[in-house]
Structures are given as C-alpha cells and as structure tokens.
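Inputs:
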Amino acid sequence: MKAWQISKFKSPLTLIQKNIPIITSPNDLLIKICASSINPLDIQMKEGYGQNIIQVMRKLNGILTGIKQPDLPLTLGRDFSGVICDTGLNVKSYKFGDEVWGTLGVQRTLGTQSEFTTASYKSVSLKPNNIEHFEAASLPYIAMTTFSSIVNTNFPLSLKLFCNYESDNKFFNKTHDNSQYYDHTKNVNDDLTEEKANKKSSPDYTYTEIMDSGDGNKDCLDDILIKNIQNKNILIRAGSGGISTFVVQLMKAYNAKNIVVLCNPHSFDLMEELGAYHTIDYKASDVIQQSRILGPYDLVYDAIGNKFSSSTSSNLDDRHSIKSYMNLLRPYNKSKYITVSSPLLSNADKYGVFPLGLGKSFLDYNYESIRALMKGNLFYYGYYMPNAHFMRRLTQLVESGKIKPVIDRVFRFDDLPRAYEYFGDKGLSKKGKIVIDNTKASPPD
Ligand SMILES: NC(=O)c1ccc[n+]([C@@H]2O[C@H](COP(=O)([O-])OP(=O)(O)OC[C@H]3O[C@@H](n4cnc5c(N)ncnc54)[C@H](OP(=O)(O)O)[C@@H]3O)[C@@H](O)[C@H]2O)c1
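Outputs:
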C-alpha cells in the first residue's frame, strides 16, 4: 500500500510503499481509507511539537495494551472515512465491507494519510448514509474534540472518558484477550468488490443504547449538551476553521438562545448560514466592546486561548486574551469558559512532562480557574478524545441534517504535501476543513 510518512520531525512528507498493516489488537479493524482530513494537530506532530506528552501516552498505552509503538516513522492524520477490510476477534458489531468513520488516538504511529490503517472499533461508528466519504472525513476529529471538551464540564464523566481512552486497554476492558488477536487464515483484501463494499451491517445499536452505551456510562452526552447550550447566550471565539464551523452548528442544533461568532469578515455569511445570530470581526479594535453589547454570556467556547497575546499587556493584546473574554461571562452564574487551546503540550515541550511541565500546566489552569471562580464562574480546558459513543451521536446528527460538513478544499491523496502547504499558509483565511480524497485517481504523468 502507499502511505505518506515522515522519518524525522520537521522533515518533508514522503510517499512510501509498505505492507498493509496487520491487526495486532483484538479490538482493531483494518480499514481501507477513502478520505482523511488535516488538523492543526497534524502540523504539530509533523514539527515534533507535543512530543514529550505524546511519548508518555505511547509508553502508557504500551504498558496497558502490550503493544509498543515507535515515535518514528510517523504517518499523520487522525480522522478518516473508509471501508472495513478485516476485524479483530473481539469485534462483533462490524463486518467486512461496512462503511465506517472515526478517529485514531495520538499514540498510533500509522495515521490515516495512508491507503490503509488500523483503528479500534471503540473509536468508530457506521458512516452516515447521506454524505460522501470525502465529506465525512471532515468531521470526526473536530467533533470528538468538541464533545469531549463539553463533557469535561462534568468531572466524573471526564475522568471516565480519560481512563477509557480508545477503551483498548486490558485493565478497563475485561474481555481483552491477548492470546489471539486475529484470525490470520482470513484474507486481507485491498481490492474490495463493489458488491461486498456495499453490503452494510444493520446498525448494532439503538437509540436507547446510545443513551446508555453499555459500559455503565449512562449518557450523559445529551444531558450535558442540553445543560450547557439550550437557551444559553453563547460566544464562540474560534474563527471559521474546523472547530468553529462544527461548534456553531452544534449550538444551533441544541437550541442556544443566542450565538455570537468572532471570525474574519470573509466568513460572516458562512457562519450566519451555519447558525450564528451575530458575527464580529475578531481583528476589530473594539471587538471586546462589540462582544460586550451582546453579552453577558453563559458560555464562551474558545479555540484561540492566549496564543496571540503577549506577556506585556496592551489594549491590542486584550483582543487576544482569555482574560478579556472571561470578563464577558454572566457573573455569579456558574457560567462556563471552555478552551481547547491549552498550554499542556507546549509546557511539556518546554519543561519536560514530569514534574515541571505538568506542574506549570496545573498552575496555568488554577490561575484561570481562580479568576473565573472569583466571579462565580467556571473554567475548563478541553482535549481531543476518540470515542465510539460520540461517533454514533455524530452519525445521528448528520443523518438528521443538523450537522453538515464544511469543506474549504479537497486534495487528492497524491497531492498531500500541497494540502499541507495550503493548510499552513498563514495569509489564507480558510472556511472549514481541508480534506484528502483517496478515491480520486491521479492524472497520468
Ligand atoms: N485541545 C485539543 O485537543 C484541540 C483539538 C482540536 C483543535 N485544537 C486547537 O483549536 C484551534 C482551532 O482548531 P481548528 O481545527 O478550528 O483550526 P483551523 O481550521 O486552522 O481554524 C483556525 C481559525 O481561527 C481563526 N482565528 C485566528 N486568530 C483568531 C482570533 N484571535 N480570534 C478568533 N479567531 C481567530 C482563523 O481565522 P482566519 O484564518 O480566517 O483569520 C481560523 O478561522 C487550533 O489552535 C488547535 O490547536 C485543540
């Protein structure tokens, strides 16, 4: 099969020929990738940012599952839409030919920018039947980040989500059988016939199961979404990229009272079409005042954090600091500030993971948290977490038409380096996601 990979951090992507992976965990599926997408995490992983934390996660995962993964070579890509070519022995709910979509944990070195990959069945679901693969690939990573960051506002559940990361490990998964991963007498067939690929399993879940995912994890997701969104005044500080185009639709689907989006003026129309009631130019000198007029807010959802503010405070920096937007929350109301722009990875890169990196992140969290608590409000960091339960909810939201993929541009698989250049072009204001379509043939040389 063909796969894009890097053999060193900060090095160019190279297209290589390698063996189709074999299933090494009983929970895994072998997937033929039809499409994937690019996320800021891919750029970070390519450059080696966040490596200290990712290495710890790989080591932990190695201890828990008995499967060691090297840091390099690395194939990027965390989300996909594709077709199942084979299943591990624990997989009862999917079969050969099922069209699925999902995400991979950051510990996996064979990502989705490849012709095949392996993924845990506990981080996928059946693909919605009303969209194409290239559209589907734009959603899983941003949706898993959004759902898990909102679930993070419920402590027992967020701890459970963390402990069940990909739900693949032998301590939390009592049925894990390491003695036999996979029946090697079965054929791995990369040449799926249309007939087989079209044969879909009937979904192995019902709505009740989604509400109670069977692992004692009484759902929750809907309750938490309703509690945080319904009838609330919400400010989204995330532009018009992947996260924002998903979050605004989710807020609309869960009946927010008012949705204000800070973005580039080029995207005002798009964001209003997706559900924003008001749009404000995030670069405007009076962006804080304009946002205040439409407040106070019950929830600020932020993907920018303090990234563009400097330590020397000035009025201009106020437009880019958590502090300024936190002041717009409705006071003494347990209003929530959720940001997915946490300093965890950068602190671990700068100071190492233990004890300084984690210690500094804990202090950063406490600093913002105390600031929020002083006004009777709450502050949370959110993180990307793969989860099948969330994926099934996402399938329903897409099939009911409440969430639609928003795609800036589609690149062919062979054109992947150009897609990364385009993604990294700071001068370009993108609208939605950049997607890689593996099903489009390359033009002849
Ligand atoms: N913690 C996690 O696990 C996690 C997971 C996913 C994403 N994230 C983080 O979330 C961020 C957004 O992700 P994404 O996928 O949406 O990225 P993206 O598709 O690259 O979009 C970023 C958007 O932010 C806008 N922007 C830049 N500065 C802004 C500001 N000061 N105020 C408002 N908007 C601003 C950009 O606007 P223009 O380019 O149009 O000017 C662009 O539309 C990234 O930094 C990523 O690292 C974290």
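Remarks. The first helix runs from residue 40 to 47. The chain is about 35% helix and 20% strand.
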